[in-house]
């Protein structure tokens, strides 16, 4: 039995209150059956290779061994909850860069609180963590189903956002002042670290405020979870831009379509979008360093491609080839390392290379980041956001705190914030994803 | 160890030939590492409740017990393959109704055969199984990368399709005549039964022809696999129609937007699209019978909704409420039971109901099926189709037969055709999906 | 000089007040130059054939003669206006069926009133003319720039609409009660007749209320003006459906894609959308009766097409072939003649025809009307609506009444309501439009 | 009568051959009536102000006087044609930058030649004028309806393009060698000058080769004609990017969305797209110089806007504010003046300005040019391209040469190439278009 024990989730206390969902929302005969039982778990890893005693696969495969078993508590409504719904005062904040689905998540939290639990006091904090800090002078918005009506069709965040942390004690002061006892934080890695600092301060003060996160990163680089919301919408938009690059490259002799896509540390968007188009000839990602010059280098491979087909399409993630640039050491407001611009760097290198050998080409360079991230969520992501928002509400009502909701092998679970903070999921170079990219592009660049 | 044994896949014989992918396609130092090892498996079920000894959860939950463990062989390229690539003559056929991604799968198979294995003889059979039958007089098309160029941007199937089976011996005659030793069959449940009949006839004749399926159903009702290709594209299109219905319903006093969506036996499209919009007020699916008349019946609930909000949106799967119709017993060419038209039936019932009580409404009825299924695949589905097509090729090259490729908890696997034939995945009324539909709609219809 | 005299527009009185636009909105050196002069006109007809003295062209052409000259007053801001902006109380109402751009027009009127003239009291009447009638109990909405924010991205009408007239005296009572002195009416032919009745009642009572119309008809059948707003958006959506029909028709042997498009009396959508796709094989419109049966009839021509190409696409306007149906005599709430359903009629006739001769076909029938009309306006229509709304405001401020704004040969003008009421623009069978349809389809149906 | 004489179009000789369209394509009773008569004309200017004797409007309006009358020959099929269709060998070439609709025009020419006149020899030259020059070694493609099937759904040009002229005698050598007697040239201003050089060389050699142009410029800056094909599609795409900019600007405190749009010399795309969104706050175009610094300068106005609303959206045409840059003197391959990058320039200036006054903002800069121009045509542009291509064919068959087809006040006409060469249509600062931009943005920048 022990092997099924889920990863420990912090709670504010025992759940003793009957969920109002029993009587209000559904009218099945056996209403209890809509609830998730307290023991149900999902398994985080499900690919196995039954290796020999030394833990080695004869074929040197990459599948996990049994010891990797890890379980997470399933998300969903509980029969018994921690908070008295009539006393809940909830807050919602969106932080960091834009991502499709932000408004869907906010709307879903509002609808989940109101429709399932009858919660009426829901505050929207403006412009990220700035919204908790009096100095900035931002308003607090009351959120109701009417206010969030239609938000699922609007890109970006209607609450506004900002980058960077604020002082935990100032933020918790604000929560206390508004008597908020349930805070929903939507943001990326830095934001979740900020949320943990809030939760910590809350605990130090002996307060009972649930802090639940919905992780947001358009790069899809959160560990453990299958996929972050907005990622598929972004891939779809990126695919459309790659199609434009393909059209441009074919429209002129030796045309080169060069598209810089998001992906600071992880090349998921570039890989997925390139597979979706499958007319991309080179995919360059942070995880796979590559040689630029010389036989078998990228420029040489590009030259060969042009000689063979008269056009080429390149998808490069913004974090690729950073070793090739003199990496700048500055960091931005969120504490992220500033990246040198690999897109413009490659554009220059390509132009130089072909000018030197007097080979006429035309590079069409596209940097569509803002266009990709500011559109409304597609249906898949809207559905996913709706689920995440509702399950975040259920988790908070059941007193869970310092945790996030996320899909793990197709099931939404509760995951301790500490499990994802400070980590980044990367494209596994031995995974089917990268293998398919290699099969699709046939790229013969020498990787190092 | 035994517990990791995957479900048995039929093979044509031992794999003794070195894969050409080792030397041709990639230039990693350790090329072997792109291959999938022969023992790797994925687990089909990953939600568990550690019940008591009697196998009962105190909270009557729906999660599986340990005994449900089942493993499937991972898909992907093998280091040793069965067929000598230079002797492969492949055939591809698409059957049944249209579905986004059909052309993507065909194109991916062509590219996978050509680019990874150098296969040059690839036949496209026209108009489904009819293409194997001389009487119909359809051409056979030679497929090359040039021929399938751009197919990923075209809806439907460029090969054409048809419904219904043809005689296995006639079809195998055709395969023999063209010396085809590898057949890729893309189609639904009926098609897979046809493919099994072909595989059976092939075996009876002692031939060595690999028959590999890629299951296609826009309803997403194939058991075992996570999701069928094209499903998300269809959901996205259905969501857009639901948005139109919402706009129409709000444009007139007591406007009712009534949308019939695909789903003969399974309401997945209706559920997912309704969650993506989350302005839908009633979702009616085949899995959940409902009461039409009387207190708490659908019409009464609709009436209450209109009194409260002056408009309503209804998503009804085509297979819903069949008990309410005098189900016709006819079957169509594919052997599917003919459904009575629940959409028009409801439209009439709604109009009658409100006319009787002299309550002015306006029903806007939409039946967008063809529009939903004939569009090109979105990026997600294109990527999925690209993966499926390539993995189908790898499976066939490795001599697997009478199997399909499909994603099982995020990993593409080999699944015996017999495991999916004649079965249908349904919306589990105790799953998070249906729960979220109930939370989103707040529909208070009495279900029976 | 006399020949330039524009068509007479009714006015409430002399314009004596300085437009606030002089000082507020622009800071050009010569501010007067933003205003339209009082004599400027546009010419309604600009294709001429200099015929012989008898007025006959040797080549029997269709171009107009000089005598058709007709001029309309140009729309735009006037230097002197009739109303004191501080005393304006405006009303806006949308009537009839949905059409892309309705919200854009409303929003533009609100922005035009507020930003150019500082008008603050703007009422939105709900649900068409019903909104003026106390019995219905609909609210009146205050419209501000904040309220209409984002409306350009929403389909349908946020004000709601309804069909059919209401009593003029009841409606003018409502206007008097609210002290509205400027009414903007957005709707079709019936609506404009209603607006004329209001203007008449206003005049009878000696009131000074400007009544300005913005004609709306997705069928593009308003006489005089180039094109109605929303038409191009509808054509674009209809084209997408025709593409689906094309895909469906090619997906099965002898597939027939049959699409019913809007167009009660005028086939503009069918013609334009068919040209945009130019893979449509038959276009049937109300203006051109056709033979169904017999040699050279539609069914025979369709048969020949299928024998030649194995698939066919048909675009049929809803008002086509009404003589072939036993036309029902009912009228709908707007007083429009109820049309028999030519789409279902043709579907049945086609099926019967081919069943009789034992020729297997498959008709895919699509009726996308609601989907075509409830989407948001495309950029062209949004721009057009923005212009119309602003020019409607300028006209009303200058005291014009019982008139509409509309584009005449590329210039927005003032047109008396009486000029368009009760008339319908039709597809001219000798125009380039219909000629191009014949060239594109090559349809060899015998027209009668 | 004389006043109706159209602008003189060059012809190769007298039209003496009966058009095959009489008997083949249509079966009206009076087939002649599909033809355009030889005298029909359209009028180029249709806005008039009946000024006083000195030609001055009291209100200093901008409308034309009567003396501006100018007529153009209507396009369309002629009853008598110049070329014997069986002897026609046609060539098609696309030149210059990409523009939505290029493939539509090519396809329409192919269909028009084949379906209306039975022409079978149609050559597609690859990569613009390079395709005529043997040194480049590009293939010539045979174009048939099958080859161009589906091209209307593909962006860019399937024939390829290039910039810059080639020697006329080399090009005419190529035409002679292939016995081409009809050349269709699709391109911009430089291309039309190249076409005139070809026509000139053809005339000098005494050849009978018709040279007909279809003007292409995404900037919509061709004089005389209403609008160039692809323009509306580009505006629609640009509008979508402006919407993204709006979302980005609202997502962060003092967010600034800065979008550089196409428009070297003319700001039509920026103006139209800004009106379509009508949430744009500043529109900067080449036609209207503006002050950057100081009270009332752009930066000061932007500051005021941010203080008032916390976000701002700017649309800047690439040719705007060139006086503010140190204009570079280089020219590109087409002989166009190289523009300094106003987008990056403004971005830097804005950042500098607000840094200096320590006012935190965030500029989101977008340069979507390739994305805007490489997409397929929308329905309106597809229809327009279909018309242009067919009318270009009719003109060439009737022996017209050194002319273009284009829409003039809603009617497609024949226009001498010399009338448009070397000129550029500009946004008239006293037109309704610019007036509406000022009304919509309320931009209070001091223009100079």
If you had to describe this structure to a student in words, what would you say it looks like?
The structure is a homotetramer of 448-residue chains. Chain A is α/β, with parallel strands linked by helices and 448 residues long. Chain A has two domains: 253 residues, Rossmann fold, CATH 3.40.50.450; 156 residues, 3-Layer(aba) Sandwich (Rossmann fold), CATH 3.40.50. Helix content of chain A is 32%, strand content 17%. The first copy, chain A, is built from twelve helices and 18 strands. In chain A, the strands form five sheets. A seven-stranded mixed β-sheet of chain A has the order 9-8-7-10-11-17-18, with helices on both faces. Chain A has a four-stranded parallel β-sheet with strand order 13-14-12-15, with helices on both faces. In chain A, strands 1-16 form a two-stranded antiparallel ribbon. In chain A, helix 5 crosses helix 6 and helix 6 crosses helix 12. At the A-C interface, loops of A face loops of C.
* Main beta-sheet annotation of chain A: 7 strands, mixed
Q: pLDDT average of chain A, as an integer?
A: 90
Q: Topology as H/E string of chain A? A: EEHEEEEEHEEHEHEHEHEHEHEHHEEEHH
In total, the number of strands of chain A is: 18
Q: Given this structure, which CATH class of the largest domain in chain A is correct?
A: Alpha Beta
Choose one word for the global shape of chain A. Answer: globular
Instruction: Give the termini separation of chain A.
Output: 46 Å
Helix proportion of residues of chain A, in percent? Answer: 25-40%
Write out the strand line-up for the largest beta sheet of chain A, numbering strands in chain order.
9-8-7-10-11-17-18
Q: Architecture of the largest domain in chain A in CATH?
A: 3-Layer(aba) Sandwich
Unreliable segments of 5+ consecutive residues of chain A: 24-32
**Percentage of residues in DSSP E strands of chain A:** 15-25%
Q: What oligomerization state is this entry in?
A: homotetramer
| CATH domain topology of the largest domain in chain A | Rossmann fold
Number of domains of chain A: 2
Output the radius of gyration of chain A.
Answer: 24 Å
Largest interface: A-B, 85 and 84 residues
How many helices of chain A in DSSP terms?
12
């Amino acid at each position: 039995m022990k092997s099924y024990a889920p990863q420990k989730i912090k709670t504010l206390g025992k759940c003793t209150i009957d969920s109002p969902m029993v009587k209000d929302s559904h009218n099945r005969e056996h209403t209890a059956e809509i609830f998730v039982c307290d023991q149900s778990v999902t398994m985080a890893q499900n690919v196995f290779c039954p290796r020999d005693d030394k833990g080695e696969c004869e074929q040197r495969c990459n599948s996990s061994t049994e010891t990797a078993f890890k379980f997470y508590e399933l998300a969903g409504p509980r029969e018994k909850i921690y908070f008295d719904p009539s006393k809940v005062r909830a807050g919602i904040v969106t932080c960091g860069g834009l991502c499709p689905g932000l408004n869907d998540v906010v709307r879903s939290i509002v609808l989940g609180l109101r429709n399932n639990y009858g919660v009426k006091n829901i505050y929207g904090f403006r412009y990220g963590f700035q919204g908790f800090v009096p100095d900035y002078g931002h308003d607090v918005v009351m959120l109701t189903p009417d206010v969030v009506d239609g938000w699922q069709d609007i890109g970006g965040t209607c609450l506004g956002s900002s980058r960077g942390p604020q002082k935990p004690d100032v933020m918790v002061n604000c929560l206390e002042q508004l008597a908020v006892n349930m805070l929903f934080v939507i943001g990326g890695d830095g934001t979740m670290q900020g949320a943990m600092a809030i939760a910590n301060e809350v605990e130090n003060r002996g307060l009972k405020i649930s802090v639940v996160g919905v992780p947001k990163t358009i790069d899809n680089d959160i560990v453990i979870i299958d996929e972050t919301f907005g990622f598929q919408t972004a891939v779809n938009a990126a695919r459309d831009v790659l199609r434009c690059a393909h059209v441009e490259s074919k429209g002129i002799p030796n045309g080169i379509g060069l598209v810089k896509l998001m992906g600071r540390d992880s090349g998921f968007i570039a890989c997925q979008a390139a597979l979706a188009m499958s007319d991309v000839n080179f995919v360059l990602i942070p995880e796979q360093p590559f040689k630029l010059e010389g036989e078998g280098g990228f420029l040489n491979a590009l030259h060969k491609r042009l000689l063979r087909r008269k056009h080429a399409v390149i998808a490069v993630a913004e974090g690729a080839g950073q070793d090739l640039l003199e990496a700048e050491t500055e960091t931005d407001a969120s504490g992220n390392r500033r990246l040198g611009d690999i897109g413009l760097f490659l554009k220059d290198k390509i132009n130089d290379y072909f000018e030197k050998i007097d080979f006429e080409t035309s590079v069409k360079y596209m940097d569509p980041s803002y266009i990709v991230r500011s559109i409304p969520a597609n249906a898949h992501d809207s559905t996913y956001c709706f689920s995440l928002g509702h399950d975040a509400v259920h988790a908070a009502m059941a007193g869970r705190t310092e945790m996030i909701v996320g899909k793990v092998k197709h099931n939404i679970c509760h995951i301790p914030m500490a499990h994802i903070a400070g980590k980044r999921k990367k494209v596994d170079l031995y995974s089917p994803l990268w293998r398919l990219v290699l099969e699709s592009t046939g790229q013969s660049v020498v990787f190092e």
